[in-house]
Amino acid sequence: MFYRLWCLCICVLFLALPAKADSLYERLGGETGVREITSELLDLTASSPKTSRSFDKVNLPRLKQKVTEHLCSLTGGPCQYSGDTMKQSHTGLGISEAELYAMVEHLRKVLDARHVAQADKNALLVLLAPMKRDIVEPRK
Question: Does the pTM exceed 0.90?
Answer without folding.
Answer: no
